Amino acid sequence: MNQELTKKLYDEFPELFRGRNKPTTETAMCFGFDCNDGWFQIIYDLSADLMKLSAQAGVEPPEVVQVKEKLGGLRYYVYAATQEMHERIDEAEAESMNVCEVCGEAGC
Fold first, then answer.
1. CA 63 to CA 104: how far, in whole Å?
2. Is 0.85 topped by the overall pTM?
C-alpha cells in the first residue's frame, strides 16, 4: 500500500496499529500493509468497525499484527479480539475476494 494511505490508517487508528514499530519477532506490521491500494477502503472500514466494537465491549482495541494478501484475499491478523471482532474480520476478508486489490473495483 502506498505511503499516503498507510499514513492515513496509522494516523486515524493508532490504537490498532500501536505495535507497528516493534521488531519482526513480535509483529509483521513493521513491514507495513502487504497489499495494494485497492483494498484500502475495506481495511479502513474494518479498522473503524473494530474501534467501535472495542468501545462497545469496553475492551482495549486489538493489536493488528499483520495485514496482507494471501491466496487472492485480504488477511487481517490481530491479537486479543472478541468473537464479534473476529466475525467482522471474517466479513472483510470475504468481501476482499470480490474487490480488485489493485483498483478497488468490484469483480475484477
1. 25
2. yes
DSSP 102: T
DSSP per-residue letters across 2-29: -HHHHHHHHHH-TTTTTTTTS-TTT-SG
pLDDT tens, the chain, 108 aa long: 999 999 999 999 999 999 999 999 999 999 999 999 999 999 999 999 999 999 999 999 999 999 999 999 999 999 999 999 999 999 999 999 999 999 999 976
Give CA separation, 14 vs 8, 50, 51, 58, 76, in Å: 10, 12, 10, 18, 16
Cell of 38: 485497492
Among the listed residues 48, 38, 20, 39, the one whose alpha carbon sits nearest the alpha carbon of residue 93: 39
DSSP class of residue 68 equals: E
